Give the backbone structure.
Amino acid sequence: MATKNAKNTKNMKMFVVGVVERGGFMRLVRMRGWRGLLAGLVLVLAGCQPVQPSTVTVTPAADVSAAAPMAGVASIYTEAQGRFSAPVPTNWTVTEKDGYVLLADPEASLKVYLAVVASAAISETIAATWQRVDPGFAPVLRETLDVPSAAGVEKSLIVNYDTGDDNRLVQGFGQVKDGVTYVNLYDVQMAGLQKRQAQLGIVSSGFKILAIEETDLSQTQPLTVTEAIVPPLEAFITANMASLQVPGAAVGIVQDGELVYAKGFGVANPETGAPVTPDTQMMIGSTSKSLTTLLMGILVDEGLMSWDTPVVDLYPSFAVKDAALTQVITMRNLVCACTGVPRKDLEWIFNADSMQAKDIVASLADFEFFTDFGEAFQYSNQMVATAGYVAGALAAGDRDGSGDLATEYTKALQARVLDPIGMRDTTLSFDAVEQRGDYATPHTLMLDNTYAPMSLDLERPLSLLGPAGGTWSTVNDMARYMLTQLGEGVAPDGTRVVSAQNLDVTREPQIAIADKTSYGLGWMVTDYKGQPVITHAGNTMGYTSEFTFLPDANLGVIVLTNARASNLFNGGVSSRLLELVFAQEPEIQKNIDFYLELVDQRVAEFKQQLGDEIDAEAVAPYVDAFTNDVLGAITLSLTDGVLTIDVGEYTSELWPYRDKDGKLQGYIQTDPPAQGLIFKFEKDADGQPIVVLGEAEETYTFRLEP
C-alpha cells in the first residue's frame, strides 16, 4: 500500500545527525554525508564500546603468525616491543615501517597506521605521526573530539580532517597511557569502506594496549536481580528515556529459568496516553532472524534438510549472479552474513508495492558479491528472508516453490516455533495486531534527532522480509523465547522445541564483526568481560529491539521500544544491567553522555547547512519523471516552492543541503521512511538531467523516462 505523507512545514526541515543501527534495516549515516561516519569511526565501528584491554602474551619480536581467534581474522599482530597488538582481517597485509606499522586491505583502499610515541601531547603526536607516515599529508584540520576512554587509558582524542575529496576519509585516534600516546591513523576510500566496513571495525576495536590487563568475569556468577538491582536500573531507564527522547519502552529480565522482571515505561499511544506494558506489541525487526534460524534447526531435526544442503536442492529456481556459486550456496550460507552479498535495503523499500516474497528470492540473482566467501561480514536482509522462505516451502512440501512463500513461512513458524514455545502474541500479521489493539505507535527519528509518531502503514513493507525482520512480539512472549534459548531448546512448559545440538549450531561463530564479536546464524556471538554473550538487535521504521542473554550465567534481558534507531538506549539498558549484576564500574553512561553532546553540536551545524528555499530555475530541468532499472520510477514536482519526490511507496519533501563552504551537495529527503537520503541533480555525458542517489559502489542513477 502506498503511503503519502502530509507536507512538512519549513520548521520541520532538519538534517539527520547520524543513525547507526546494529542489525537493523536502515543504515542512514549522514553526519556530513559519509564524512560523518568517520567523525565517530572508532566508537561506531567498535559498537560505541571502549576498546577492551588484553592479556595477550608479550613476545620479544613482532608476531603476525598467532592463531586466528575467529573466522574472518587471519592473525594477531603483536608489536616487536610488545606494547600493542591488533587483529589482521582476512586477506589484509601487515607492513612494518620505521616507527609504525601499516595494515591494509587487498586493494589498499583502507589503510590503518599504528604507532607508539613517547609523548602525552596527544594532538601534536597525532599530527607528527601523519607526517611520518605520509610527508605529503596536508588536509585541513576539521575538528578534534575528546572521547570517553577505556579503563586504564588516561585520555582519548579523535582528530578529523577535510581532504577535499568526498571519497577519501581521514582520521586520527590517540590514547594516552603512562605518558605514552598510542596512535591509530585511518586513511579510507569510500568504495573500500562500503565493501569492508566490518574489517575496518575489527582493527579499530581490536587494537590492544598490552600494558592494560582486562577484567575476567568468566568464572563469576551474577548477583540475583533483587530490590538492590532494580532501583538503579530503573533510574537509568527513566533518565535515559528522557535524555534520548524515547517515547516508550518495555523491559524484561530472565534469570535462572524464570521471568524475574517485566515492566513498561512511557507511552504506547501519544494520543490516548495509553502506557507501555509487558504485553504491548512492537515490531522486533532483525531480532526475527534468530526465529528463522531456529525454524531451520527444527527442519534439520526433522531430517528435511541439513545446514549444508545446497539451496538449489530445495528450491531449484534459486540463483545468484555467479552461476558457479548458485550451485554451492547452502542453507547455512544464507544466514551466516559471510558470503559477501552486501546490504541492498533501498531495493525493497523503493519497490515494496510491486514485490512479493518470491521476488525477494529472485532479486538475489542480480546482487554483486563485494568480497569472497568467508572474508568479511556483509549483512543482507534479502539473503535471510530467502532462507526463511525456502524453509517455509520445504516445511509445506512445496518443492517447486509454486506456493505462496510468505504464507508457507508464516504457517511453519507458527506450528514449529511460536505455538510450542507459547508465544501467543507473536505474529507477522499487521491485521492481527490491529485487531488485538494493544500495540505501540511507531515513532520515527526526525532529522533534528527528535521523535515523531508515524503511520503504521510505513511499517507494512517489512512484511516482504518477514523471516528477516517482520515479526511483532511482546516482552512477555520474548521472555518465553529467551527461556527456551537458555533451556537449550526446551520451552517453559517442558516441550522440546529443537535439539540442543542444532540450537548450538545457530550460535557457532561464522564471521568476525569486531573484536571478540562474530556473527553466527541469526545471532551475534560476543562476550562481556569473559562471559559469553548471545545477542541481536532489530530496527524497523519506528521500533527497536534488543535481545541479549548469557548462557553460562543463565541470565538475559529484552528491551523493546517504539522508537526508530534507539539502539544506544536499548543496548545501554542491557549494559547497565550487566554492570549491576556483576558489580562493575559504570561505563555505559559516559558513552551516552558523549553521544548527546556530540549530537547537539551536529544538529547546530547541520541546520546552518540546510537551505530554506528552492531555486526554481535550478531544479526546473529535474521536475519530471525518472527511472532506475533497480529502484524503479520516481517523480519530482515543485509546488508553491516545495520540492517533492514521489517514489510510489511514499512521498517526501526535498530541501537543499550545502557543505560548510556553501556548495550545494544535493537535496535531502526529510520524511520517513528513508529521511536523510541525499539526491544529487546532475547531467550525463549528453547533457541530459539525471538524479543520483548514493556514492561509490552503492550508486543508483535515475534517468528521464522515455
The chain has 20 helices and 31 strands.
